[in-house]
């Protein structure tokens, strides 16, 4: 880890239920259900397992450009943020066993409720009251995001090129999510999300700016695309995979009110790999008129004449069991 100009260890800790017993992941889910309105079932969207060894849901190194306050020199600072569902004692013990070189102490941890962690992820300083979430007047912040999956370690030279490019853009952060572990155990076809075993990490390039106007937009979008172009040799290929939740209109976009199959196949394979075909079959069965759509939605099967190819529905039904 010597190549990071500044290493800032920061760990966020989230416990929703105060309890003296060790907090298990299943226990956390029960707690979440108890504390969640039944009309908003967060519970359903969280992957659960009998094995309670899985309790860290996020651990993201986050490189960002920082200015040295005395010299004015720009550098890249890397924050390691872990969002752990359990007590700080348990986390400190775990990290000191696995990453003793980090020297994590309980003072690096902040225990908070789930809703307080939402305020944290929205980039407010620690201690900001949760009532800030009621403020619906947002500052205008423009952004451009792109994402990549990395399967081979990056060399120091590549990391240095990334740093240089980031310093040129300045208003950018990289959000890096490590893979392996539980992510590698889940089959690529178990859910629509296909990016599982074989990935070292996922990276989001996120450029954000507040200057209004087309010139600022053009500059930041161009620089972000240049960074992604520079990364081409070092990331996933055929297809160059992308994360559907970080919508990137550079990888294909439909006109209003239509979902063109050939256009969709390009972004669809990047977002869903082989699962794309099954998603098309499901879409064709459930929403044949393409009522639900956005510029990067799943297409229906192309129509032939005034209908689908004869016998397609039984085929779909058997394909999705
Ligand atoms: C829990 O982990 C053990 C050991 O890795 C494994 O044998 C078992 O199948 C797992 N159980 C579940 C429900 O995933
Ligand atoms: C700022 O630069 C000075 C002089 O090079 C250095 O001693 C100091 O550690 C730097 N501060 C940070 C936060 O990097
Ligand atoms: C709400 O947010 C806006 C934009 O950040 C800010 O200008 C305003 O003061 C905030 N209002 C309150 C009541 O905090
Ligand atoms: C945008 O850039 C062009 C070309 O450099 C310049 O002529 C124009 O005045 C700029 N517009 C704004 C709003 O800054
Ligand atoms: C798309 O469809 C909506 C709803 O039918 C309609 O209001 C809108 O004008 C259409 N847009 C275009 C560009 O055709």
UniProtKB/TrEMBL annotation:
PROSITE patterns in the cross-refs: PROKAR_LIPOPROTEIN
Gene Ontology MF term list: flavin adenine dinucleotide binding; oxidoreductase activity
Signal sequence, renumbered to the chain: 1-20
Residues of the Berberine/berberine-like domain: 242-299
Keywords, comma-separated and alphabetical: FAD, Flavoprotein, Signal
Protein name per the record: Berberine/berberine-like domain-containing protein
Species, as recorded: Malus domestica
């Amino acid at each position: 880890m010597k190549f990071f100009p500044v290493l800032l260890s920061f760990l966020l800790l989230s416990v929703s239920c105060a309890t003296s017993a060790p907090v298990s992941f299943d226990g956390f889910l029960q707690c979440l259900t108890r504390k969640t309105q039944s009309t908003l079932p967060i519970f359903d969207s969280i992957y659960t397992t009998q094995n309670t060894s899985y309790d860290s849901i996020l651990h993201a190194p986050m490189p960002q450009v920082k200015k040295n306050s005395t010299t004015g020199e720009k550098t890249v600072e890397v924050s390691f943020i872990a969002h752990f569902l359990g007590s700080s004692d348990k986390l400190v013990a775990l990290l000191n066993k696995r990453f003793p070189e980090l020297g994590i102490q309980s003072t690096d941890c902040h225990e908070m409720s789930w809703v307080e962690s939402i305020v944290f992820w929205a980039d407010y300083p620690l201690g900001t009251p949760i009532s800030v979430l009621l403020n619906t007047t947002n500052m205008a912040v423009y952004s451009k995001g792109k994402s990549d999956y990395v399967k081979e370690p990056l060399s120091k030279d590549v990391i240095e090129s990334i740093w240089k490019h980031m310093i040129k853009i300045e208003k950018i952060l990289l959000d890096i999510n490590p893979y392996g572990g539980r992510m590698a155990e889940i089959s690529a076809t178990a859910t629509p999300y296909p990016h599982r075993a074989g990935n070292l990490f996922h990276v989001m390039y996120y450029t954000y700016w507040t200057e209004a106007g087309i010139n600022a937009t053009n500059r930041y979008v161009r620089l972000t695309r240049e960074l992604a172009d520079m990364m081409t040799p070092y990331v996933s290929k055929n297809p160059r995979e992308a994360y559907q939740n970080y919508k990137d209109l550079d990888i294909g976009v439909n006109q209003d009110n239509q979902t063109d199959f050939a256009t969709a196949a390009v972004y669809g394979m990047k977002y869903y790999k082989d699962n794309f075909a099954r998603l098309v079959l499901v879409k064709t069965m459930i929403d044949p008129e393409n009522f639900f759509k956005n510029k990067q939605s799943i297409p229906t099967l192309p129509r032939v004449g005034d209908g689908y190819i004869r016998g397609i529905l039984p085929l779909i039904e058997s394909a999705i069991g």
